Amino acid sequence: MARLLKYLPNHYQQSIFEIDFLVLQKEKIKVLMIDLDNTLVPYDVKRPSKEVIKLLEELQTLNFTIIIVSNNSQKRVAEFLTGLPYLFVAKAHKPLKKAYRKALKLLPIQHQTNEIAVIGDQIITDVLGGNKMDFYTILVDPILKQSDVWTTKFNRFLARRVVRKIAKRYPNKYQEVLKDYAL
Ligand SMILES: [Mg+2]
Question: Does residue 183 lie within any of the structural domains?
């Protein structure tokens, strides 16, 4: 795959709450590796909202295995998930493959790469990392960009450049996936 296309998600949706998970189920996705910060809640929100709790419960009902994969600290992720039954990897170092390999090890059974979807708000970490693993990648908008930490702000700067390049070099793919994605 061309290097630039590693930054192109398979799908874009404005928010995780708008993803049609029944379609993913039909496409035989079994595992959802979900980013935490600015995908489920803003950086400065410590506990899941009712909406998040409900969504995760619904996904379990649909038989998805859920793993939270976050670059944030053990403390942050463990506190967020207190009392909730979901697997997680903290300090994951996305986009490195080892982040997802750790997550794979936590799974009760082995899965094919095409049974795994990554959902996240960052092209430079979530999308690139997921694509490197050949997972199905879904990009969402950050819930509250102002809450980004500085590393994320820098990553978004890089992501904007990458998206502009994709738009220029692969206009059809850009139209197909990212035309509604606001830089
Ligand atoms: Mg994030």
Answer: no
